[in-house]
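S.,

Sequence below, as promised.
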Amino acid sequence: MNQQAQVLGFRPCPDCAELPDALEHRLRDRMHLSELRRRATGWKGRLALGLALIGPGVLVMLGDNDAGGVVTYSQTGATFGLGIFLPMMLLLGLVAYIVQEMTVRLGAVTRRGHAELIWKRYGTFWGWFSLVDLIVANVLTLMTEFVGIRLGGQALGLPAWLTVPGSLLFIIYALVVLRYWTWERISLFIAALNLIFVPLALMAHPDWHGVARAFTGHGWIVPGGFLSITFLILISANIGTTIAPWQLFFQQSCVVDKGLLPQDIRAGRRDLMLGVVGMVAVALALIVLSAQTLQGLPNAQGLDAEVILHALRARLGDGLMALFALGLMEAGLIAAIVITASSAWAVGEAFGIARSINAAPRQALGFYLPAVVGTAIAAAVIMIPGLDLGFLNLSVQVIATVFMPAAMLFLLMLLNDRELMGEHVNSLPRNVASIAIMIALIACNGLYGIATLFPHALGG
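The prediction came back faster than expected:
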């Protein structure tokens, strides 16, 4: 530890050698950030600090563009074309920023993860409720990630017995063996590959006039109307792939493990905005691409990744299909990495055990093992032949929308706890926006439920 600190330009720390492994690594990260803050006087110093603070926001938002999201956006473009969902992605990006910004402040101010705060502030019952909610949603979502990895690999000629277990081993290795700083940098590199869908959409020669019309309110054709079951399912799925419970737990714990402080909140917001811009750009690209190449396919709402890949091969050729397949595998891999980490952090925080990626496996078996088991179960299920993959994907995204209001309620209560947040407590405009998002989620869930149980009640 002392040699590493001296290399980084820190003063020796004679007691650091006696620290547990997790605390040693965490202290080194804190010292690194502290030194960068001290040197952040000129533009070079500020740039170095800004780059070092990039991580949680970019990972949570590009990880949000997961394999299930890729399929959902493709289903949306194939069903509704260049229409209302294009400008809606901008609105959903704003919603994601409003929700996730609260986790940045909460983590930086309290230096506690989301699960830990719920357990300590609201008791065991609500702690268990939020934890079970998260773990169930995470395992279901991880299934869609392995679907993307499996089908993307098959399109490239790679067998499922190689891609799914290989990805599982890499995810476990990244979580268990790597320490936080290395884990984050490698994850950021993988997340950046998510942007491959943007040039892919450009190479498909989209109808730019149709894109422009969509943003001016023209061409918003919604077959069956805004209360049709198809529209309600896809709007619920798009919301579910934009904001989900795991994102709250992940980003707040990531902020804590990284060592952000209240003075870093502004940098955390910039990091989040960078991630939101990337997320929206990829979502728009996928909708444009699918509207250009997949619209008109039968049962577009029920498309799965395999059908999408076959259609892209037929219409764009092997080269562009291969790029899409690589993007699909990357989307599944980065999402699985961050979702698995969110499960580990939540369990560690809930039960008061080691809760840092800096912890050595031998010292934190209870931290790593539940997340590893949950991810392995998801991978094993996807190896079962005959699964309805399109239905699974849409169902998982809709389930995330159903679980989200409860997760947001806890978040909102914590952000309005002045004893916890002090001067960083939520403002009135932030509360109004958050409550409006919760009401919209509940209304969307209600309409979807009515349309499902009583198909003719809404005139759809």
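Residues 1-19 have pLDDT under 50 and may be disordered.

Coffee later?
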